[in-house]
Amino acid sequence: MLNLLSTLNLENAEKLILLNADELKDAHVPPFQPDFPVLIWGNAPLDLEGICRVLQTTYSVSHSLRIATESGVLTDLNLGLLAANGKNTEVSAIFLSALDAGTSLSSFQEIVAHLRAPNGCPWDQKQTHKSLRPHLLEESYETLDAIGVSDYEGMAEEFGDLLLQIVLHAQIGTEESNFSMSEIIKGIYDKILRRHPHVFGEENLDSVDEVLSNWEALKEKERKDSGKSEKGILDGVPLSFPALNQSQEYQERAARVGFDWGDISGVLDKLVEEIVEIQEAETEEEIASEIGDLFFVLVNFARWQNVDAESALREANIRFKGRFSYIEQCARGRKISIQDMTLDEMEFCWDEAKKNGL
Predict the structure, then answer these.
(1) Which one, of 2, 21, 20, 19, lies nearest residue 11 by Cα?
(2) In the sheet where 64-69 sits, what is the strand order?
(3) What is the three-class DSSP state of 48?
(4) Residue 114 — pLDDT band, cuts 50, 70, 90?
(5) What is the rounded distance in angstroms from the CA atom of residue 29 to the CA atom of residue 50?
(6) What is the reported pTM?
(7) pLDDT tens profile 23-46
(8) Rg of the chain over all Cα atoms, to the nearest angstrom
(9) What 3-state class would DSSP assign to 334?
């Protein structure tokens, strides 16, 4: 190893991650912080194809690196070129330069902790779990908006804003000795392993329905093991969920344990039944109740069609806004107020908006 470090001129490196190439054999992402320089070493020939596949999940194809052979030959190239020359049997080591500062979770945790420190930001220092609730909700909805319009640049930014909220809560939890980021990550890490025995264990599950049914069985076992056996299947659905999300989640969870229609015809019959009941309702209370039932059945119909009801309504809202804005543009083009337009004129502009793809 000392000879290898000398060959690569790394004897005096201030920081360096040493990684045996075997550690990447079954990996899907690099098991190290990318803002540190890394030396991957092993016995030639290294599995360059497999190594490049893992590295390209984090590093660009233009990322600079240096390779060394068993005979001591050094070559500077980039990750793309290394991937293209994956049959080179002489390579025994790969040195990757570090990505820019701030490209690892730990470095991000550091700046958030700095914000909360005595020499940090007055606003961040004052925040609590409860005071951050509206910001978490806002960032979640802004992320959903970006997803809804397939704005990938916006998605990357909004996921960062959402991550800031999570790390802020982790930092507050650490300061108050309630929980830490490592506990958060370890908790979800263990949960994923536990709830995917068909991936990380010996269980064989071939279909999505089998996976979901087994998921509910595992959650039931977890409730019993934690002394929460009285907690129902639907109790884990947040009460703060938007109503459509909550309705669909209730129905999905009930379906996983067999409480569901045999086929979609039952849903359609129920839909007709609810419309009749709305027509027959007499009081405001009855009408409101029947409308709620109709919404519930519509969500069930969406579930049967593998459609997310909340997203479907959100997209319908976007279409309505776009088409109505077009009507307003028509009014401005005619130099009249929209209030002065007739319904027929509005509908003409509406149909024109639809033809234009709005």
Answers:
(1) 2
(2) 17-20, 38-41, 91-96, 64-69, 74-78
(3) helix
(4) very high
(5) 11
(6) 0.73
(7) 999 999 999 999 999 999 998 888
(8) 28
(9) coil
